[in-house]
Amino acid sequence: MTRAITQTELITTDPSGPRARGEASGLRWRRGARTAVFHVLTLAVLVVILYPAVWMVMSSFKPGNEIIGSVSLVPESFSFDNYAKALSGIGGVSFWTFVVNSLILAVASVVGVVLSCSITAYAFARIRFRGSKLFFLCMIATMLLPFHVVIIPQYIVFNQLDMINTYWPLLLGKFLAADAFFVFLMIQFIRGLPRDLDEAARIDGAGHVRTFTAVILPLMKPALVTSSIFAFIWSWNDFFGPLLYLKDPGMYTMPLALRLYVDQTSTSDYGAQMAMAILALLPVVLFFLAFQRYLVSGVATEGLKG
Asked: Rounded distance, CA 89 to CA 91, Å?
């Protein structure tokens, strides 16, 4: 016999009843509160991260006496005098000389890394030779070795070879696959490629040179572009290497040019230094924006999963 459903039971079982609507409203409120808190925290972190960059941009439009000790972020009056000073050069050297020097080192570093590291990576990933595992282990061990440990021995060697005050100490390692990070990155990518490609090329009579240039190298585009981006940015921003090996101001790069504006014994032009810093960042930002899609695809590729 069918029992009659009371009004209380109808209210508690009806999905559209007041209780159900109240629970749904509370759930939406909690979700909205969590989303709001997440966005507030994200914006707070973003402000902390971007504040130094915003301060540098704003300081490039301030007079030098307003930069140090000023609590105001926005300048009282915008002036482009700092950029005019930066573009006019310093120490008798033109601004564009610094730009050309940095470009020479950055582009040559990219070429050296792409050529030497790709060949070395192919040898480790595809060619079986005696001691390959030992050599690979030694290469990985160099990634754990602090750079400061080898500074003095390297300087002594380059000094005996009469390479001080030249670009060779900064570029020679790039063409000798001395950057283990890029070699390891390319090795992992090549190992992700099917070996059937090598076997098919070998059946067609191709040797290692032709297999590398015609089969493997075209497929390494994501890894090559990723290595090129990092090599360009690291070389462009390198300060310690040029400071150690370059003595002639006419050979200085952009990071060294920034140091010339700060003199502890006399007047320092912080305004021109900030303007120079902004100008030095522009090529790196443009280079990154132009190739960021290749960088994402190179990092996300399954060949880098190891």
From this structure: 7
